[in-house]
Amino acid sequence: MSGEMKDEEVPAVDGEAMCKQLGSCVVGAVRASNNLPSLSDYAFYSTFASFKKRVANKKNTGQLESRILSMMSRLVSHVESGSNQEEPGMSAEPEDLLERVVDFADARLERVDNLIDELTGKAPNAEEIALRTEAGKFKKTSKIRTRPEDLGIPKPQQKFDDVIDNSNTPFCPKSWPKVHGRGGEERRGETASSGRHPYEEEIEGIDYRSQHLFPEGEVVRPRDMQETPFTWVETEQQLLDLHKTLSGCKEFAVDLEHHSYRSFQGFTCLIQISTREQDFIVDAIQLRGQLHQLLPAFTDPSITKVFHGADSDIRWLQRDFGLYVVNMFDTGQACRVLEFPSYGLAYLLHRFCDEEADKQYQLADWRVRPLTKEMMKYARMDTHYLLYIYDQLRMLLREKGAGGDQLVRTVLSRSNDVSKLQYEKDVFDPSAYLHVLKRSGRLLNPRQSSVFARLFEWRDQVRSRAEMMLQKEKEEEELLMIMMTETEIEIEMKMTMGMVKMKRHCLMEMDEEQQKQLALSAVKSTDMTGQVARSHDESTDFVLPTNLLFKISTALPDSRSSLLDICRPHVPPLVRELHVDVLERIQSALRDQEGGDLQQQTRRSVRMEAIKEVYMDVDESGE
Known about the structure:
Layout: H1 12-34, H2 39-45, H3 49-54, H4 63-79, H5 94-120, H6 126-135, H7 200-204, H8 210-213, E1 230-233, H9 236-247, E2 251-259, E3 267-274, E4 279-283, H10 295-298, E5 304-307, H11 311-321, E6 328-330, H12 331-337, H13 345-353, H14 373-384, H15 386-400, H16 406-419, H17 432-440, H18 446-460, H19 465-484, H20 488-497, H21 505-508, H22 512-522, H23 540-543, H24 546-555, H25 560-567, H26 573-577, H27 579-622
Parallel strand pairs: 1-4, 2-5, 5-6
Antiparallel strand pairs: 2-3, 3-4
Helix pairs in contact: 4-5, 12-15, 12-16, 13-15, 18-24, 18-27, 19-22, 20-27, 22-27
């Protein structure tokens, strides 16, 4: 029985011993990694020559770093020895090595889970696997699944009263009757639909008074958050009460929490507002259709609105609620004028308030309801201390400006420029993929680049299956018309040779398939009707992450199994669902690339024939 192996030849005790040994090694590795410095400690130790020599440096030549990278490189080479993956080599980037190791570990762990399920009779069927994948319930260990937003939460935008316009057209702003307008009552009804910022004149005409330029009286640190009244605003009556409170203030602080991973344009989830006496957090999902009622307070030029780094906030307020801001002080702009070593809010909180922001919530999923206590605390902190920071910054600006108000006015002028920003929808640019390729530093051959461009377009705007059939019929009709008249080759022949009698010279020498491909290449339809990221209201990163876009474009899969294998262990749900469309795009790009090569060859031959005939005409005339 030489070709067979019995179960008893592999004793279970050996497997247990191996697992214990592996477990011991893993524990030792974890302990060793925990002893390494991280974040600020790492930056501190990196200033010592002995540390850079023994551990790490910018050239990846530190003794410990070199050893780790060498081990990772050998591990990747070993596990991918039977695949078509490119050998990493010692020059590979540490991030690429880590990604490969993580992907391999994820795949093995998922395989173990599946085998255990099969052994216990709990193996899910294909439909259950698809549902679990779509809901995002697999282990969040790979690059794709570490996104904190990917929690399988129902999409709140499906219940919005306003229609989400993801079409590939310019943004159409929400319009409300204008308040606090200058220039008489006839201007009061002007809205944002004209394309011009509706409050540009009001922003530029602010009459700043002393209360806007310098703190009045002694600057007092606010009470701790646990001692400050707090209101969670989720009803229209609470919103009206909030507006009444804000209208009686001289200033209030504002911040937004936004979500973009499971939405094409993104949407605002929370609006944090703090006055001198209390904090508010507005449920911007629940009250999305009513938040325009805050417009009078936000556009009142006598009330200062304090933001930090408001470039995005200003645009989001316009897009989601039709809210505009008149008289804003951006503490981020003040940091720049004061030339601080950092412009972040975390730096200001530490410097002026001795508070540390919990950075783990910077990318939290703010769609979650109810919010956890930790998320609520993080959101409140963004505005709770901001008015106090605003006072401190104005004092420093006056001190640096020798007691004058010039620097404060400079900050206010810069803040006004931010206030005048207008939201613009992300309209698809077919050449944008070139920027992604350049930024990545990766080299793709012409065939791979063609596929990359086509899939880059697909993940933003591509035909749905039903619309593809209609578009195919339209293309076939146009193809028949073109075949009966002229193709691009014929037109170029006429222009190059200047003779109508040569009109079909090139086509006569081509077979039927070549003629069809050349005619199809002439049909450059710009009617990109069906859309994936736009129609599903998903971000392009959710539809097809850029790292997978590179992998697919490099491998050029030609079947469903090869496509999904490249994307494993975590296949994007829409790639799985629309795999037929993806494969058609790949094949179409490759055909167009081959057709383009043929087209260039044909054009060259046509030009040569034209040149020959010109010389023949010259010779004949000379004789």
